[in-house]
Amino acid sequence: MAWEAETARKPFSEVSLDSVLETMPPKISHSPLTVPLSNGSVLTIPRRDLFDARFQLISQGTGDVEGPESAELMSALQFLDNPSDLVPLVYEGGLKTWECSVDLATYLSGIDYGARSTKTRILEIGCGTAIPTLYILHSIFSSPPSKEREIHVHLQDYNASVLQLITIPNIILTWYHSSAVRTFRSGGLEDHAESALNITPQLLDTFRKSLETYWVHIRLFSGSWESFDLGITGGRYDLVLTSETIYRLDSLPSLIHLMQRACHLDDDSGQYLCLVAAKAVYFGVGGGVAEFTQCVEATNQGARVETVLEKKSGVNRKVMSVQWL
Ligand SMILES: C[S@@+](CC[C@H](N)C(=O)[O-])C[C@H]1O[C@@H](n2cnc3c(N)ncnc32)[C@H](O)[C@@H]1O
């Protein structure tokens, strides 16, 4: 299989938003995901269909690309058929939406997470389909733009192909279904069928302009957590989010180390919010909330992990807030 040859952890790399926009297919199809909000209402978020991402890969001819990029795309093709499969350090599950990401969006809907501050830096670690970030962007694009509010949204996934095939298409879909677009529709953007969006040069141009108007700066990073370079990404964040990333004991130290560095640098005492959504137990994989808490406390004596939301229906799930000392 394509992934057997790969053993080394993927290195940190920035994936340029422009290059992802340039390789968008002419149409993306999507289905709705329902996010319960803390006020009892629901938000419907459009997500790209996996069969559509698969179609893009096939029609772009993954075989035409050479080197590591080709291996990455070949394995993306493989995993699009089995999005729940996790193959450590090859494909880590980002193509599929995992249920705790919805819990995290629900939790965010009930708190002030700081997006009204003058400058907010947000990092979603292990973003995949990026539901918490989509919730935040939906809120931003649904309020009037303000010059006094600048938002830096950084998205990290182990696999660059996930950022390209799923994360950015989802962001475009969220933007397109927000009230921000109404302002631009008068500029001639056509209406689209409910389940598919035509990606025209005009639409992409309007998306770019919208980001500028709303002062939203998006950057994408792939690679392993231990290689994540805060020097390149611009330092600490005000809001660090992660969901369904604590499943494997082996990767807990690198995840926790990144979360800690991303919130709290040694010479810095800024305010931050660090939220982790996870199942209480990941059967058969080893990780879970207890192991995560132990590892946080072993890494940073004095750090506090507090449960801020708990879901007991089905598998027990939690949203936790971490305070580093
Ligand atoms: C199970 S998926 C969860 C995706 C998404 N947060 C959700 O809840 O739907 C785990 C995510 O963590 C990332 N990930 C897992 N292990 C990683 C590692 N060692 N280094 C970097 N990223 C990793 C993967 O890329 C993937 O996006």
TrEMBL record:
Gene3D superfamilies: Vaccinia Virus protein VP39. Its EC number is 2.1.1.85. One of its GO terms (biological process) is methylation. It comes from the Eukaryota. Keywords: Cytoplasm, Methyltransferase, Nucleus, S-adenosyl-L-methionine, Transferase. It is found in: Cytoplasm; Nucleus. One of its GO terms (molecular function) is protein-L-histidine N-tele-methyltransferase activity. Its main location: cytoplasm. InterPro entries: Methyltransf_16 (IPR019410), SAM-dependent_MTases_sf (IPR029063). The keyword Cytoplasm applies. GO terms for cellular component: cytoplasm; nucleus. Belongs to the methyltransferase superfamily. METTL18 family. PANTHER family: HEPATOCELLULAR CARCINOMA-ASSOCIATED ANTIGEN, HISTIDINE PROTEIN METHYLTRANSFERASE 1 HOMOLOG. This is protein-histidine N-methyltransferase.
